[in-house]
Amino acid sequence: CIEVIMRAIPDWTGPFDPNQLPAELLTAERPYVVRGGFAHWPVVQAANQSDEALARYLMGFYNGVRIGLFQLAPEARGRVFYADDSLSSFNFHRYAATLDQVLTGLLGVAGTPEPPALYVGSTTVEAVLPGFLEANGLGLGARDALVSLWLGNRTRIAAHYDLPDNLAIVAAGRRRFTVFPPEQLPNLYLGPLDPTPAGQPVSLVDFHRPDFERFPRFRDALAEGEAAELAPGDAVYIPSMWFHHVEGLAPVNLLINAWWRQTADHVDSPLSTLRLALMTLRDLPDKEKRIWRHHFQHFVFEANEDTWAHIPPAARGLLGPIDEALSRQARTQLLNQLKR
Q1: CB-based contact 264:324 (threshold 8 Å)
Q2: Tens digits of per-residue pLDDT, 47-97?
C-alpha cells in the first residue's frame, strides 16, 4: 500500500479542550491528527465494547428517517468509483434504507472474507439521530457547522477536496486518511466536474494499484502527501481544499465529521466561479487570457483598500466591501445575464 512510503500527518501538540476546540487548530493551514481527543464520547465507548453495542447505541437515537445506502459488488473491493473508463456511470447501486437495515447488513457480512461494500455517506446527523450531538459534543463553539455521519465497512473514497474546513472524528472502526496540499491538483488527475460519485471531482488514480504509466505525475503527488491511520476517538483536521483519500479498514466503521466555512454566509462558493470561468475564460485567445489574468490579480487576488480608494464609497458596488444585500443584488443581476 502507498501509505508506507509517505510521511505521517503530524499530531496536534498544542492546547486541546474537547469542550472548546482551540481556534489555532480549527484555522490551521495544514492537516493535523488529534489522537484520542474524542475517546470520551459515549458512542466511542460503545463501539469499543463491540459492533453490536455500537448498533444499539445508534438505534437509541434513530428517528426512523430513511437514509441513502450505496452498495458495491465484492469485486469492486470497496472502491466507490465509476463503472468503467467512460466515466459516465458508477459502480454502485443506491437504495433508500432504514438505519436498522444498514446495521443489520453490516453485522451480517462482518465475517465474510470478501463482502459487498455497504456505505452510507454524508448523512446529516440531526436529521436521523436527534440528540446525538448533545451526547457527543464537538466543541466547535459558535461555528455554524454541518455535521454528518459516514457509516460502512471496508470502503475507499477517491481523493477529492471539500470547500469547507473539515474535522473528521473516527467513532468506530479504523480509517486511513491520505492528504495532499491543494497545489498537487495537476498530479492527482481529477476526473470530470460532472458526473461525480458524490459531488466533488475525484482523482482517477486507484491508490491501491496506481497506474504510473497512465498517471506518471502521481509519483510527484506521493512525494508531497501525508497519511495517518485513525482509531476510535481520534480525529483529523483537514483545511479547505486539501485533497483527501479516505479508507475504512474495519468491518464496521463510523465517522462523524463537521464542515464549516470561515467566511460569511453570503459569500458564494468559488466553485461556481470556476465553472463560469471555464465557460467564459478558458477558450479565449492567449492574448485575452493574459489581460483577464491581470484583471483578476488586480480586482480579486491582490485587492486591498487602494483598489477602490479613488471611487466614492456610494459608487463602489462590487469593487468595495460586499455585504449580504449587495451580494443578493449582484446574484440577481448575474442570473439575469445568464438567462440568454
Answers
A1: yes
A2: 999 999 999 999 999 999 999 999 999 999 999 999 999 999 999 999 999
